[in-house]
């Protein structure tokens, strides 16, 4: 993604994770996963839906399927350019309009 310059920064991406029920990836809040992966958004879906990734638009490549040694630990990950606007405060692409603060940053600034 970085090599062909489709994406210049990890914050320019949204990540789709497709994991089976009971997976630790399904149990973590998406905003915490986004912080962990240093991306703007993470969307977690049932593993069975991984073929629907192409419908998201702005995709970079196709989802990568990972399968554990015993065949049970499988999940798919897809990456796409973020669809929202860049927040001028946190630089995440989660703002609803250009040059406006995202909701979390707006709350922080309002509390100051």
List keywords for this structure.
112 residues; 19% helix; single chain; alpha+beta
Helix content: 10-25%
Content-based structural category = alpha+beta
Number of alpha- plus pi-helical segments: 3
**Distance between termini?**
38 Å
Radius of gyration: 15 Å
Q: Flag low-confidence runs.
A: none
| Strand/helix succession | EHHEEEH
Largest sheet: 4 strands, mixed
Tell me the count of domains: 2
Provide a concise account of the structure shown.
The chain is an alpha+beta fold and 112 residues long. It has 3 helices and 4 strands; from the N terminus they run E-H-H-E-E-E-H.
Present the secondary structure layout.
Layout: E1 13-19, H1 24-27, H2 30-37, E2 41-46, E3 59-67, E4 74-81, H3 103-111
Parallel strand pairs: 1-2
Antiparallel strand pairs: 1-4, 3-4
């Amino acid at each position: 993604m970085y090599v062909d310059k489709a994406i210049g920064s990890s914050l320019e991406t949204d990540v789709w994770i497709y994991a089976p029920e009971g997976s630790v990836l399904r149990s973590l809040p998406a905003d915490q996963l986004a912080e962990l992966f240093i991306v703007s958004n993470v969307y977690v879906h049932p593993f069975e839906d991984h073929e629907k990734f192409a419908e998201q638009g702005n995709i970079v490549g196709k989802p990568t399927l990972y399968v554990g040694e015993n065949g049970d630990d499988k999940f798919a990950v897809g990456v796409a350019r973020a669809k929202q606007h860049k927040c001028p405060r946190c630089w995440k692409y989660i703002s609803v309009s250009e040059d406006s603060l995202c909701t979390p940053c707006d709350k922080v600034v309002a509390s100051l």
